[in-house]
Amino acid sequence: MRPFILAETNYAHTKTNPYEVAVLPLGATEPHNLHLPYGTDLFEGTIVGEKICEAAHNKGGKVVLLPTVPYGTETNMHRLPLAMNVDPTTLFRFVTDLIKCCINSGVRKIVLLNSHGGNEMKPLLRELADKVDGHIFLCNWYTVLSDEYKNIYEHPDDHGGEMETSFGLAYFPHLVAKTADGKLTGDAGGTAKTRFDAINRGWVGITRPWHLLTTNTGSGFPHAASAEKAQKMMDLLAERLGTFLAELSAAKIDDKFPY
Ligand SMILES: [Zn+2]
Predict the structure, then answer these.
(1) What does the pLDDT look like over 192-232, one tens digit per residue?
(2) What CATH number corresponds to the domain at position 36?
(3) Is residue 256, in this structure, part of any structural domain at all?
(4) Which of 61, 74, 127, 136 is close enough to 246 for a disulfide, judged by CB 3.0 to 4.6 Å?
(5) pLDDT band at residue 238 under the 50/70/90 scheme
(6) What's the 257 CA to ligand 1 centre distance in angstroms?
(7) Does pTM surpass 0.85?
(8) Ligand 1 geometric centre to CA of 89 (Å)
(9) CB–CB of 65/6 below 8 Å?
(10) Where are the beta strands (DSSP E) in the chain?
């Protein structure tokens, strides 16, 4: 039993060992090119959560990892089979209820560890800022290493590309589909452009209809992936986010918190 993972611990532990910080991973269930499992984002959220909470625990942090929310916002995949959508407002209500549980239990520092680009959670932080007796933090873990990304990977990854495929090869290799001669079954992850230059350049945004953007739901080249790349990424994530969680645990909530 790992005392920093709620699903593994027991009441005998929680009644005598209060936590300071709760970490809630937010996943998704959706197709990821032809070779990665539907659970990719939820597996990633759980594994990153375990690694960073373990690192914080080893630094003395009183942190607890909550079970991962397996569903996320998939409205842009509505034409693809079994992309299990939860509308943003529904997700906000659900997460708000879980945040209230933490606060009622005396855990007033809550970190949302988001693992899926479709889950845009910042508006919830704004909405709750004047309504709950706690402090909510948001970490989209896949943005934490933007300064190091090019030192690890060769190709950018939007969805099911080099980074996520490396993640799978390192941490759930039995679920990464390969051909008989050992190659990934996924396509090259190329994407289509819209008819508008302003959208293609990012001056104007849309929610991208995934069945038109991609060939087989992948956006990003997966074939340069390796387990070693993801392990390097995870070591850096555990160092950066484990340190943050340990500092957050030790911090006293006063009038100036978090300044
Ligand atoms: Zn993903």
Answers:
(1) 999 999 999 999 999 999 999 999 999 999 999 999 999 99
(2) 3.40.50.10310
(3) no
(4) 61
(5) very high
(6) 33
(7) yes
(8) 21
(9) yes
(10) 21-26, 63-65, 109-114, 135-140
